[in-house]
Amino acid sequence: MTRLLDRGPATPLHSLYAHVPFCTDRCTYCAFATIADDPGLHRALVDALLGELDRSGLAPSSLETVYLGGGTPGLLRPADLEALLAGLRRRVSIDPDAELCLEVNPANVTTESLTAWRDLGITRLSMGVQTFVDAPLRELGRHHDGDRARRALDALAGGWDGPWSADLLVGWAGQRISDVEADVGELVRRGAPHISVYGLTLEPGTPLLKRHQSGLIVITSTSLNHVFDEIWSSTLSSAGYERYEVSNFALPGARSRHNQVYWRNGDYLGLGPGAASSHHPLRWSNVRDTRAYLDRRRAGRSVRAHVERLAPEERLLETLAVGLRTRDGIPLADLDRRFGVAWRPPLADAFAELTAGGVLVADRDRLRLGELALTRADSVVSALARHLGRAPGVPSA
Ligand SMILES: C[S@@+](CC[C@H](N)C(=O)[O-])C[C@H]1O[C@@H](n2cnc3c(N)ncnc32)[C@H](O)[C@@H]1O
Ligand code: SF4
Question: What is the CATH number of the domain that holds 381?
Fold first, then answer.
């Protein structure tokens, strides 16, 4: 029998993620690597990120996507953001048409900040709106109310030419169907080119999980979430948005290029506290604690907390796990090129069953889930994992 291989992604490393951990307040549901904002640490972080890039020895020949995520990188002063981008440009050539995305909170967005970001070369913004309803925003520990988000959207409408995305959070306790309709409807009316809709999850170590464990109702039921999903997906589809990934909707031409690298299981370099990297054949993640990260950088020590070499079976499952959550699915030729044809026989029975059941679409050249099965991608991958005798793994950014 031919052995399963992993030849790595088709394209070399052209994507960089930099994690900026500062947040004005910690939201009660969030388990990302964050720290209470401390402007005194901003420049130290910028220096540490650039130093980490130098030490990695992995500066790509050129960058096609750069994602400044967090945390809240929109909190960085323009001078610090400029130092970070200028430092990157000194080390790596950034393509003239590269996507440079900045994650922001509505409280950071003003006409002045938009001008500064555009002048620094930021091409795309991703803003956490979550909802326009004030009570859950307060309850979830957000640092803005619905009107602040509306003012940020007004500023975007008047002073931002590039693409932008808004995140919505669905599934907070007490949310009604009319709330979902109003939140999605307002973003559609305002012409958001891209909308991400995230179902609220209970993450380890968060105050929200503690409240749930103490018996309080903090999230909506699975059955109500299905109703919500139908509402937002049909509203967005009628408004011309393509659900190109389970949680992501884009008007034509407004897809996130950076996130698509993750969903193709491509290589990316992650810098900063808690950042993950994938560079064939390795995957690693950094220490999550910001002060420990900065201390290690200052001492010239490695910031990597966990490094692993993935077996071809694990990479195959990852590739299926992320790719099957996308509307485009995965080209069969890409799977053959990366894993050799040996990936097909162990999964043949499962594919036949899933295709007969209408879950998988039997396209000639790609593997993809049917329209209605997209939201069931995780259970499909678990079924495929059982056929491979493995637990499914999903790469995280
Ligand atoms: C880094 S944040 C975006 C920028 C900024 N920090 C903000 O929140 O406005 C990325 C997104 O992840 C979402 N997120 C974090 N924890 C989540 C959870 N437990 N369930 C669902 N979405 C979550 C946030 O709501 C946010 O929209
Ligand atoms: S959701 Fe955003 S603002 Fe809230 S704690 Fe997480 S990263 Fe910070």
Answer: 1.10.10
Q: Which two tokens stand for residue 214?
A: 């103490």
**DSSP for 221-241?**
-HHHHHHHHHHHHHHHHHTT-
- The response to whether residue 248 sits with its C-beta less than 6 Å from ligand 1 reads no
In CATH, what number is assigned to the domain containing residue 65? 3.20.20.70
The whole domain housing 204 covers 15-263
Using pLDDT thresholds of 50, 70 and 90, give the confidence band for residue 377: confident
As a whole number of angstroms, the distance between CA 359 and CA 373 comes to: 6
Q: What is the pLDDT of residues 107-157, one digit of tens each?
A: 999 999 999 999 999 999 999 999 999 999 999 999 899 999 999 999 999
**Would the CB of 52 count as within 6 Å of ligand 1?**
no
Residue 47 lies in a domain: yes
Q: Which atom of ligand 1 is nearest the CA belonging to 29?
A: 19
Candidate of 25, 29, 34, 148 to mutate for ligand 2, largest count of ligand atoms within 8 Å of Cβ: 34
Count structural domains, the chain: 2
